[in-house]
Amino acid sequence: MSEVIYSAESKKSAAADGTEILFFTIGDKTYGIEIEFVKEIISIEQITVIPKIPEYIKGVINIRGKVVPVISVRKRFGMEEIPYDDRTCIIVLEFDNGDQVGIIVDRVQEVIVVGRETISKTPDCRNVNANRYIKNIVDLNGEIKLLLDCNKLIMN
């Protein structure tokens, strides 16, 4: 049984002066996703492997009777897998159509309300945004964080 670290029942809608973003790390990089996609954050648990699926899909888990596919963000980004530890988490994303998908991340950091003025589009150069999963760049006091496009991360 997984330990629930965060549940959407406790979240509020986006703040009037900005957007709530959940930040997490993969390796030494910090990424963010808009809190509106986050259903809950759970500790890593036993994943049932399904044969003949893409390598980045680790398998499925059962969350209160619902079968949820789980994706390794490391594998999705073409990075080497590392052993799970007590800080490895599954962020369960929920989309408008009700679909849920879990993403495995190394560490969950924090939720921050980010002002619109700190969010910018990715540069429109061919090689600069080679990672199609990056939606925006967030500049928090000179520290650059990458905001992921949840739909592209999961669907493409």
Spatial order of the strands forming the largest sheet: 1-4-7-8-6-5
Task: Kindly report how far apart the N and C termini lie.
Answer: 30 Å
Q: Which stretches are poorly predicted, pLDDT < 50 over at least 5 residues?
A: 10-14
Helix content: under 10%
* SS class: mainly beta
Count every beta strand, where a strand is a DSSP E run of 2 or more residues. 12
Note the total helix count: 2
Q: SSE order, as H and E?
A: EEEEEEHEEEEEEH
Mean pLDDT: 85
Taken from the alpha-carbon principal axes, the silhouette is globular
The oligomeric state is single chain
**Rg computed from alpha carbons, rounded to a whole number of angstroms:** 15 Å
Largest sheet: 6 strands, mixed
* SS strand fraction: over 45%
Outline of this structure?
Helices cover 6% and strands 49% of the residues.
Task: Describe it.
By secondary structure, the chain is mainly beta. Helices cover 6% and strands 49% of the residues. The chain contains 2 helices and 12 strands. It has helices at residues 73-76, 150-155; strands at residues 4-7, 18-26, 29-34, 38-43, 57-63, 66-72, 89-94, 100-105, 107-115, 119-121, 134-140, 143-148. The strands form 2 sheets. It has a 6-stranded mixed β-sheet with strand order 1-4-7-8-6-5. A 6-stranded mixed β-sheet has the order 9-2-3-12-11-10. The longest helix is centred in the C-terminal third of the chain and has 6 residues, at 150-155. Mean pLDDT is 85; it is low at 10-14.
